[in-house]
């Protein structure tokens, strides 16, 4: 029941333009891939897009690809914040579905307010209240799974019972873990539906296929692909330039206030993070992250929260503990703030961890690699660089697939207009170098090392002139990268801005 592969499109003719060597890559291969020029650019209706990145920044430009021949959306599954974190905490791990659900909901075709499809969309994008008490949120959830909630109005009975069956299934799994106390505040119905489908079908792609089928998303035009095809939790970690390692996406980008203090309950002793050590060396690839290098306490249930014999009995004793303390612990990542304290040094790399704190090297989803071999345009979406884009690149085979694709005519980076905790004082060149470095990683295959040049991976940078990220167009040009400036007083990309950039790309009117 996995999503069907798109049939491969014929190889398209390309115009190869020479470009100068990457000045930052003196050790690069002498036989680097030349930059693809766009003098023979295709109209939007004939283009096949591969769009990398999740989150609100990427969702804001989705409409720009609505008229394309095909678009594949590649999303990370490592988000351990929001309501996804509660599903993982209680059910004992699993891939994060928040970004997948968010993208799927936005791909649901437009319909009239009276149509069944509009009612289904309203249900699947609905969140339980965060202002009500936990008991009130739980009561509303029960009305939904019992089929009595007002949200079911207007949904045909066949589709109602299909959706409700998977909500009931995930609820039964939550009940089996009742001692962990699921917090329904701000719970996303779409997340719970996807989680229930994934648990029942045993396949995340199959759950996505079901979601798309119920919501009439055209499979022949759009598909949503998790960057890793797994039923396990995908935990990312960031190694900083000073050797510190921070585990968990939320801890990297927006740690919740309670996580800045010691946990109220002891974590599994055997996996307790060590105290910081002075003069530590960066961890070796593939080695354990638990020895000698400090790891910030992860928000991902699978890391440092491993279930051990006796945990269930311990948790049964939580009933008598302070309710406010338990509520704070269960709510630790459901609500978070983007106004996080700055990192002590820059991020040097992003990598994946298993449940024991060891670095692992997952393979990219084959559908992701396949999309790169048939796409005509690759899009790096605006959004969090190190927690949305890089987790999709720091995988075996991805850099090579991007750099050597014979069909991709343009590889376009939509540059963030603002800086955040992950990218303090970054310039456009820093963003480009982060992508180049991630795509050049060996990821356990040292024999296949290749230091790609920036022009192999990015052909154009689209940026907002009013943004705070400094863009040196001459420096980008020296790397073989063209610049496309946009004037957007709102300082944020939107559908119209993205369409304008694609039109400029098609017409060839950019800074080069």
Automatic annotation (TrEMBL):
Name this polypeptide is given: Uncharacterized protein
UniProt-listed Pfam families: CofD (PF01933)
InterPro entries on file: CofD, CofD-like_dom_sf
Example GO molecular function: LPPG:FO 2-phospho-L-lactate transferase activity
UniProt xrefs under Gene3D superfamilies: CofD-like domains
TM annotation in the entry: none
Biased composition regions of type Acidic residues, renumbered to the chain: 311-326
């Amino acid at each position: 029941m996995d999503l069907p592969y798109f049939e491969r499109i014929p190889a398209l003719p390309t115009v190869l333009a020479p470009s100068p060597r990457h000045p930052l890559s003196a050790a690069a291969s002498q036989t680097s891939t030349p930059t693809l020029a766009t003098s023979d650019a295709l109209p939007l209706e004939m283009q096949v897009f591969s769009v990398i990145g999740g989150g609100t920044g990427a969702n804001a430009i989705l409409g720009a690809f609505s008229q394309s021949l095909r678009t594949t959306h590649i999303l990370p599954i490592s988000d351990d914040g929001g309501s996804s974190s509660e599903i993982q905490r209680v059910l004992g791990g699993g891939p994060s579905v928040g970004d997948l659900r968010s993208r799927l909901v936005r791909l649901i075709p437009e319909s009239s307010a009276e149509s069944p499809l509009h009612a289904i969309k309203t249900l699947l994008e609905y969140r339980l209240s965060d202002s009500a008490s936990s008991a009130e949120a739980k009561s509303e959830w029960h009305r939904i799974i019992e089929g009595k909630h007002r949200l079911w109005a207007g949904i045909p009975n066949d589709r109602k019972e299909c959706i409700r069956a998977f909500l009931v299934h995930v609820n039964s799994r939550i009940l089996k873990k009742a001692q962990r106390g699921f917090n329904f505040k701000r719970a996303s119905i779409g997340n719970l539906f996807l989680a229930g489908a994934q648990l029942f079908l045993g396949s995340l792609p199959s759950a996505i296929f079901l979601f798309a089928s119920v919501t009439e998303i055209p499979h022949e035009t759009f598909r949503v692909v998790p960057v890793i095809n797994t039923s396990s939790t995908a935990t990312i970690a960031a190694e900083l330039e000073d050797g510190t390692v921070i585990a968990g996406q939320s801890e990297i980008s927006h740690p919740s206030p309670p996580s800045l203090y010691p946990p109220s309950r002891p974590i599994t002793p055997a996996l307790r993070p060590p105290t910081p050590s002075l003069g530590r060396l960066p961890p070796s690839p593939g080695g354990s992250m638990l020895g000698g290098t400090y790891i910030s306490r992860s928000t991902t249930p699978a890391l440092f929260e491993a279930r051990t014999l006796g945990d269930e009995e311990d948790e049964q004793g939580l009933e008598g503990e302070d309710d406010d303390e338990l509520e704070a612990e269960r709510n630790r990542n459901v609500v978070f703030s983007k106004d996080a304290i700055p990192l002590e040094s820059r991020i040097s790399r992003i990598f994946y961890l298993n449940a024991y704190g060891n670095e692992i090297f997952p393979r990219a989803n084959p559908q992701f690699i396949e999309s790169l071999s048939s796409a005509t345009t690759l899009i790096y979406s605006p959004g969090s660089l190190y927690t949305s884009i890089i987790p999709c690149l720091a995988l075996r085979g991805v850099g090579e697939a991007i750099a050597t694709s014979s069909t991709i005519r343009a590889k376009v980076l939509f540059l963030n207009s603002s800086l955040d905790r992950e990218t303090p004082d970054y310039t456009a060149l820093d963003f480009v170098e982060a992508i180049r470095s991630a795509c050049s990683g060996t990821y356990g295959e040292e024999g296949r090392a290749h230091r790609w040049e920036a022009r192999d991976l990015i052909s154009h940078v689209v940026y907002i002139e009013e943004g705070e990220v400094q863009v040196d167009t001459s420096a980008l040009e020296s790397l073989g990268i063209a610049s496309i400036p946009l004037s957007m007083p709102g300082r944020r990309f939107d559908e119209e801005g993205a369409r304008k950039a694609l039109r400029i790309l098609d017409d060839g009117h950019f800074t080069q």
